[in-house]
Amino acid sequence: MPENPTSNTPQSHSRAGRLFLFFIGLSLALIGALFVILMARSFSRAREMRSWPAVPCLILSSEVETRVHDPASPREYSHTITFGYQWQDQRKTSNLLSLRGSSWSSKPDRARASAEAFPAGSTSTCRVNPDDPDVAVLKPDSLAPGYSIWFPGLFVVAGSVIAVRALLPPHRKRIGNPD
User: Fold this and answer.
1) 33 with 62, same domain?
2) Which of 72, 105, 123, 171 has the maximal Cβ count within 10 Å?
3) Residues whose CB falls within 8 Å of the CB of residue 146, separated by 6 or more in sequence, listed in order
4) By C-alpha distance, which of 162, 164, 117 is closest to 139?
5) Is-contact 96 78, C-beta < 8 A?
6) Do 64 and 84 share a structural domain?
7) Which residues pair with 127 in a beta bridge?
8) Is position 6 within any domain?
């Protein structure tokens, strides 16, 4: 019975393998690029927040809030805060510890420490968004994404190299003496 010469030739395996590597490399590069973009946006927003005007504010309320999603889940804790500030002769209030708000955690000590750092009746400095003065925060976002952006950048570079190398013709080794 004659064999089909195109079904299992080394060339068809090589082409399929190179195509597979190309898509793996492309996927790695695209996922890395997505994270680079997201981290760059976070870094840019954090830098922008540091340029917002700093104004004095008064902490109006500062409490630890608890919640339970269902009886089987653990209790979660968050620091809720309200503070007042003045912007262009107008009194305003905000409840944003950071731009993302207060996170929930199963560790009550984290929420208590945040509440103790900003007790009701104390004064602090908040940053006001000049484009939207109703948005003010006590703690600007971290600049850490900018310092860590190199890591997903490695995936962009590695994925691109894999994809490009997969498109190049295969390198054939010569057997014997290169005379």
Assistant:
1) no
2) 105
3) 39, 40, 43, 46, 47
4) 117
5) no
6) yes
7) 54, 137
8) no
- Report yes or no on 104 lying in a domain: yes
CB-side exposure of 95: number of CA atoms within 13 Å? 9
Do 82 and 31 share a domain, yes or no? no
Neighbours of 140 (CB within 10 A): 19
Q: Which two tokens stand for residue 11?
A: 């060339």
pLDDT bin (cut points 50, 70, 90) of residue 8 is low
Q: Tell me the pTM.
A: 0.70
Residue type, 66: T
Cβ(77)–Cβ(59) below 8 Å? no
Asked whether residue 2 is assigned to any structural domain, the reply reads: no
The model's pLDDT over 71-99, given as tens digits with 9 standing for 90+, comes to: 888 899 999 999 999 999 999 999 998 88
SS3 38: helix
Q: How many helices (H) and strands (E) does the chain have?
A: 4, 5
Name the residue range of residue 20's domain: 13-46+148-167
Beta-bridged to residue 86, according to DSSP, are: 91
Cα gap 140→93, rounded to integer Å:
17
Asked, for residue 96, whether it belongs to a domain, the answer is: yes
